[in-house]
Specification:
Elements (H helix, E strand, L loop, with lengths): L5 E5 L6 H13 L4 E4 L17 E5 L12 H9 L4 E3 L3 H8 L6 E2 L2 H7 L25 H13 L5 H12 L8 H11 L2 H8 L12 H15 L1
Parallel strand pairs: 1-2, 1-3, 3-4, 4-5
Helix pairs in contact: 1-9, 3-4, 5-6, 6-7
């Protein structure tokens, strides 16, 4: 009898509490064990080496600044110990690009943007979040890039308007890039029609729809549970 590996996920602001509840329900339906952990920190991967049960590890969110970030050395040690490791969404996407030649795999839009060089700053995935429940407080620039790309694709913005909107967003430190602040800056700096097209996506019930980090996180965890 083949034992399905435990799926360990280092997550945080990339997924909402409701997302976690739904994923845990999917895990029960699939008779899988979903081991949810907070954002990965230095030494967290090393602690998984030698675990008795087979395990797949998915890295989404990770700490930096307030705690030491997970290192490439730890990633290498986990992979060499025979534990599959994949990354997406945030810190996971960054490490997956850095460590793809030693066996870490990556997926999702954020990962692809770093891989093809469209984005080269680690700071594009940075945000502030509520430490109690990991609810995002500010908007990571990578989500702004996704929103603008989609608005151009749908014909709501011109490429020039999207470029101007991105420059306005980049001028705000990630600690200050709250929804209300960014929208105010866009209303001040963009043509009225462009600002209105973007404001429509700032309704509370629409914010998760363009959280690209969240969408990537859901995709990779769901795929692991269904595999």
């Amino acid at each position: 009898m083949t034992i399905s590996p435990t799926i360990t996920v280092f997550t945080g602001p990339s997924l909402r509490p409701a997302d976690l509840t739904r994923l845990q329900g999917l895990a029960r339906e699939r008779n899988r064990t979903l081991d949810l952990r907070p954002p990965v920190r230095r030494h967290d991967l090393l602690a998984l080496i030698g675990a008795e049960s087979p395990r797949k590890v998915i890295m989404l969110d990770g700490e930096f600044g307030q705690s030491l970030a997970v290192s490439v050395t730890e990633v290498r040690a986990l992979l060499f110990a025979g534990q599959p490791l994949s990354g997406a969404s945030s810190m996971g996407a960054l490490r997956a690009v850095e460590c793809r030649t030693i066996g870490m795999t990556g997926s999702g839009w954020v990962y692809s943007q770093y891989l093809n060089g469209s984005i080269d700053s680690d700071g594009d995935v940075a945000l502030l979040y509520d430490p109690e429940d990991f609810t995002p407080v500010t908007i990571p620039l990578v989500n702004v890039r996704w929103l603008l790309a989609e608005r151009v694709r749908e014909g709501d913005l011109s490429a020039e308007e999207a470029s101007s909107a991105l420059e306005i967003a980049k001028a705000l430190n990630f600690r200050d890039r709250r929804h209300s602040v960014l929208l105010k800056q866009w209303k001040h700096g963009l043509p009225e029609g462009a600002a209105a097209a973007l404001e429509a996506h700032f309704a509370t019930d629409r914010l998760d729809d363009w959280d690209r980090k969240r969408l990537d996180a859901l995709e990779v965890v769901e795929a692991a549970l269904l595999s």
